Amino acid sequence: MNQSGVKQWLGALASLKLTVALFAMAMFLIFAGTLAQVEQGIWTVMRQYFRSFIVWIDLQLFVPTGLFELPGRFPFPGGFIVGGLLLANLVAAHTLRFKLTPKRAGVVVLHAGVIVLLIGELVTALWAREGNMSIDEGSYASYTENIRQTELAIIDPADPKADRVVVVPQPLLQNTQGQIANPLLPFEVSVDRWMANSQLLDSRNAPPALAELTTLADQGLGKQLVAQPQPQISGVESQTVDAPSAYITLWQEGQKLGTWLVSLYIDDGQPVEIDGKIYTIGLRFKRTYKPYTVHLIDFKHDKFVGTDKPRNFSSLVRLVDPQQHEDREVLIYMNNPLRYRGETFYQSAFKPDNSGTVLQVVRNPGYVLPYIACILVALGMSMHFGLHLHRFVRRPAP
Amino acid sequence: MMRGDKRATGTCTIHATRNWLLSVTLIATALAAVLTGCDQDQIQSYRAPKDPPPAARAGTRQPAAAVGQRRRMDWTVPQGWRTSNKESPMRVATFEAGDGPQQIEIAVSMFPGETGGLLANVNRWRGQLGLDPIEEDQLIEHLTPFANTGVRGVTLDMTGPGGEPTADQPAQRMIAAIIYDEQGFMWFVKTMADPGVLSQYKDQVVAFAGSFHLHSDDEPPHAQPPTPAPDSASQEIAWQTPPDWQQDPSPASFLIAAFDVNTPSGTARVTVSSLPGDGGGALANINRWRGQVGLGAIASLDEQKIDRLYVSGHPAALIDLAPDQDNGDQARRMLVSMVTRPDAVWFFKLTGPAAAVADQQDAFKQFLSTVGFNER
To answer: How far is the C-alpha of B342 from the C-alpha of B278, rounded, in Å?
Structure first.
């Protein structure tokens, strides 16, 4: 591409019309994403609308609840495309028109702030990780759980020292078409029913609407329990999380091994025997294993006198990291998190009878970028308007 | 002038070239980041340390959202009850009994966690009946505890105010149960109806709630669970009492056992009771007991001397509540041991005239050392 071709290309990308169109699209995307949170969880909407390339928007979203049914949906650029193009548009505009004069300095700084903000969101979307570490008193944990994502874990427990684990992430399980086959898996998996949120009922008490499901599973706990779909936790309910369940069929070389009910509500793996070898399968929160372990020595939950209102939560933990030769005790309490290996451990919750703690473990390499962006934008605006004010004040009186 | 213009054009070209290289690099980096970031949804295999052995987790509850029916809840439906298809959020089962105006509905629902605790739920129901809320220290008077395999619960029976029902506000009666299972779930059994109608079913509803238990692997699937003995709570605990302690054959409904001891200084009484969960909290209980022996309330547990001990392998507290000033024979003293188990708190109390309690305190401690819980 010669230089004039590049300029032409940059010129198109830097177009102000494109900026306006992108702003309009961003506004519509936010509007649709907000409406979608009436029915869907905030994190589902975040993933589908704002952290995606294309989103399929249901027409029903724009009809007030209960008025009438409006089938159909249409594709729309997701947050990655709209945000990415906005970033490209802004960068291209400055590439073509960059002039560092005192008059324009404020505008340049302001736009630099917007660029940092866009990049900050990208870094957060891609690399920020948030998980819970839940530990019983006297026990330990070496992994965090992402309570917004699940995975199907197939565990080979034969080795007494460590488990061999194969995990199938939730996005693959949500697809009920075809089989999931992979050389890492000891069998093929097909998903008969996926329930993004569910509750388990005793099969004996299942309502007639679930009659078909009561006989779907022919192996494991699904013979006694039935999963009932529940509405997803919507964006306005923050205290609870979805508890997915799925009916899955396992296959080996075209032969059906059976159908199991797996659910977040069943926390022990269900055994599957293949060629004399025992595996366990189970649906669980997505885990991230750490090279260290956190032992809970003591959890304290003090309440204000005569009330159930918590006054203080604290967790006395022992951090053991053989790689870093760490072995020390740390007291984690409200507003006093533990920072270790780029992660921050906050006191987040506790187990129902105070028998254990729940720590929130957060890693966000881009956490500082929004602060920098805000400072730059504020600085840019102050410079720009300050300059105008200065010129206005110095203007000779008519 | 011409040379100057040329120089200026050349500088501008270099700037433009640098700028577009910079912008292309920035956009390409962002694109690459997006594409690599999207590569997380793959099947993965890894070696992972085994989860902590069950022994380390035994008796603890799991995080509410993470767990559920590791073991199924079983119950016995009284004869004549029908299963209803009525559904509502968190409703696990609905039953109907009777017909026409005599019909009642019994709802069973399940929630993760403590859902506010005993007091909040009891007061919520009292509000539905038009009754005033009660305080934590009054709670025990309204509850009848029971325990079965893997569960511990209380039943309660409340009638709304007003005596004779009126057309716009008929008096209502509620029979309900709150059941904690050891897997961290709270179960509610609830029925509300006209007091006269409900009185016909009280025994059935209480027996139904009292039949809740976690499914045992020894039971064949779908087996009807055995009806628990009325004193099932006492089946999970055993002890040896000194020969001079006389068992009270009919203790108050919330007590699991009571003994009277006659001493030269008066009669002391030993009681055993338990409450699910944290039993209402240590501080609230201690302040209630302090009030019973004429001591003022404390603001923090730090103000109360508490001895630590173990009862049947469970952490326990021993609290000696002796009045500051000796009021002679009238002074009352209380020695309490609170034993914290994963699903409940057990209370062992020795109460009586200060001298009688002093006489029996060694025997009481000896009694505590013989207490054994039947660990399931």
So the answer is: 9
Rounded Cα distance, B145 and B177, in Å: 9
Question: Does residue B5 form part of some domain?
Answer: no
Record: contact B221-A268, CB cut-off 8 A: no
Task: For residues B264 and B193, state if they share a domain.
Answer: no
Find, in chain A, the residue whose alpha carbon is nearest to that of B73.
Answer: A202
Q: Which of residues 25-64 of A touch B (CB under 8 A)?
A: none
**B307 lies in the same domain as B188:** no
If one counts every other C-beta atom within 10 angstroms of the C-beta of residue A394, the result is 7
The predicted complex's ipTM stands at: 0.72
Residues B262 and B337 in one domain: yes
| Spatial separation of the C-alpha atoms in residues A55 and A33, rounded to whole Å | 10
> CA-to-CA distance for A90 and A65, rounded, in angstroms?
39
CATH of the domain at B358: 3.40.1000.10
How many contacts (CB atoms, under 8 Å) link A and B? 194
Question: Does A243 lie at the interface with B, CB-CB under 8 angstroms?
Answer: yes
Residue B45 lies in a domain: no
From A284, which residue of chain B is nearest by alpha-carbon distance?
B66
Instruction: Give the total number of structural domains in chain B.
Output: 2
Domain shared by B89 and B176, yes or no:
yes
Which B-chain residues 293-312 have CB contacts (< 8 A) with chain A? 297, 299-300
pLDDT digit string, tens, across residues A120-177 = 988 888 888 888 998 888 888 999 998 888 999 999 988 888 889 999 999 999 988 8
Q: Among B208, B347, B227, which Cα is nearest to B276's?
A: B347
Residues B190 and B263 in one domain: no
Closest C-alpha to B145, from B121, B118, B125, B120: B118
The answer to whether residue B336 is domain-embedded is: yes
With respect to residue B10, please indicate whether it lies within any of the assigned structural domains: no
Tens digit of pLDDT for each residue in B108-157? 887 765 556 678 788 888 888 888 888 877 887 788 888 777 788 888 99
**B95: closest CA of chain A, how far (Å):** 10
